[in-house]
Design brief:
This protein has 136 residues and is mainly α. It is built from six helices and no strands. 82% of the residues lie in helices and 0% in strands. α4 runs antiparallel to α5.
Length: 136
């Protein structure tokens, strides 16, 4: 996981949230709805990823990691999106060379702890940024 280790991205890119607010033409309602939905569904996304990786489900792993990556990018969760991109790259690169029943559980061991940790940090940061944004 070289890119995240060498120069970690910010947990949350506030400019993405600001752009989202402008596009939705709302004040702070986007925090309660859009970001709230991201936070609410994050454990399910990670759970799907965990299940797919640990059971050696290649198609499910790709689908779950793409869901996590895309949702993270949409709310500016840069570090979480980066971890998902790195995992996606490993899956796509290694799946054709290795037994996925061995590869995917190994990737679960490597990536799930950092993803879980980052998701907790990201959730706290998003909640704080939405709360502070509401007072602007």
């Amino acid at each position: 996981m070289s890119a995240a280790d060498d120069a970690p991205r910010p947990l949350v890119d506030q400019s993405v949230l600001d752009r989202l607010r402008e596009e939705l033409e709302e004040d702070e309602g986007y925090c309660r709805v859009f970001v709230g939905n991201f936070i609410e569904f994050l454990p399910q996304r990670i759970g799907r990823l965990r299940l797919a990786l640990t059971t050696g489900d290649l198609e499910g792993s790709v689908d779950a990691v793409l869901s996590l990556k895309t949702a993270s990018q949409m709310v500016g969760a840069e570090r979480l999106a980066c971890l998902a991109m790195e995992l996606e790259g490993e899956i796509r690169t290694e799946a054709s060379k290795a037994d996925v029943a061995v590869l995917l559980p190994r990737l679960a061991v490597t990536f799930l702890r950092p993803i879980n940790h980052c998701s907790r940090q990201t959730t706290h940061r998003l909640q704080a940024q939405c709360a502070s944004g509401a007072s602007r």
